[in-house]
Amino acid sequence: MAKDEERYLLQALEFENFLRACLYRYTRNSADVEELLQETYARLLTAGAANEPEVRSVRAFSLTVARNVAFDWLRHKQIVPIELVADMEAMDVLDERDQIDAIVNSHQELALLVKAVQELPERCRQVFTLRKVYGYSQKEIAARMNITENTVEQQLTKAARHCAQALFDQPLGERHGTFFDRFRKRKQAHDGGD
Amino acid sequence: MAATDVAAAAVAWLIRLEAQTSPEIWDRFQEWLDADPRHRAVFIRLRTAWTHCDRLKLLRPADGRIDPDLFMVLGTPPRP
Fold this sequence. Notes:
A: about 190 residues, about 0% strand, B: about 60% helix
């Protein structure tokens, strides 16, 4: 079934900032990280389509895929990465206890989304509002706002890009700190025989 | 192809396909998807985010009024 092959990718999207943080270990350049992330997702799609046993932990699997992508890229650039093996193994501890995070995250997500929409230029925001809150078609929006359908399409494209960025691209400064704080706390609990 | 170019193409397709379509447009879309495995992955990512935005229908006021400036009236979103 075609939809099935998306399952690893869709799950991985939920912790994109985790993958991104991992990829930042291999390069400081955000454009490079974007490329590596896209390649990681492409491989997750391929994995989803393959006739292999079901992956037990999508998080650990995605991390492995991301690391392989990074290594391939570095090998191509002829750079040898220094790997902290103990560090990477400890990251498997993060698989459990995700439900609470999911609930907290959905409140945060809505707040982030609202903020992102408030940042849009006026006409763009209005077009977006009519489309996503009120369910107007592009044709209906054009008629109501007295603009061309082409313009509606352009504005929605801009809005979609901005909202996707708000939902997935957490600024590294903010979320990054939280993520590694949680990681450290869990590692302590885990090492203490939790 | 640069990551930003793929993302730009993906979002353009995403929005284009929500408007009037034709078999020719869908064929061209399929060609674009088939051109590079990254295209599909990035498209799915954007589609997922765009679908998440449907949640915003919850903000529709109960009195049925249509307000394109709804988001500017909101402070922080109410806790569900």
